[in-house]
Amino acid sequence: MTRIAVIGDGKMGRLVAALAPDLGHELVAHVGPEASRAGLTRASLGHADVAIEFTVPTAAAAVVRACADLELPVVSG
């Protein structure tokens, strides 16, 4: 079971978060823009195995960089 953190709370972020358990994954964190602006940490992302990023284009690069700094694989949507 993959432990997933979803970053972004728009339509796609909410959909991925809702579907993850049905597809055999554990949703360990679902954070919105306020969390990504405050600074992402392994703890705030539930010690996930992977992050799925669905933020706005202007925030995406910073979120991906933050995940890279945490050595957390990230999929950007």
Structure commentary:
This protein is α/β, with parallel strands linked by helices and 77 residues long. Helix content is 36%, strand content 23%. The chain has a 4-stranded parallel β-sheet with strand order 2-1-3-4, with helices on both faces. The two termini are 21 Å apart.
Number of helices: 3
Categorize the overall geometry. globular
| Strand element count | 4
What's the mean pLDDT score?
A: 92
Secondary structure: helix percent: 25-40%
Return residue spans where pLDDT drops below 50 for at least 5 consecutive residues. none
What is the string of SSEs from the N terminus onward?
EHEHEHE
What's a concise summary of this model?
The protein has 3 helices and 4 strands. The protein is of the alpha/beta class. It has a 4-stranded parallel sheet with strand order 2-1-3-4, sandwiched between helices.
Strands, helices and their partners?
Blueprint: E1 3-7, H1 11-19, E2 26-31, H2 33-38, E3 50-53, H3 57-69, E4 74-76
Parallel strand pairs: 1-2, 1-3, 3-4
Jot down its keywords.
globular; alpha/beta; 77 residues; four-stranded parallel β-sheet; 3 helices
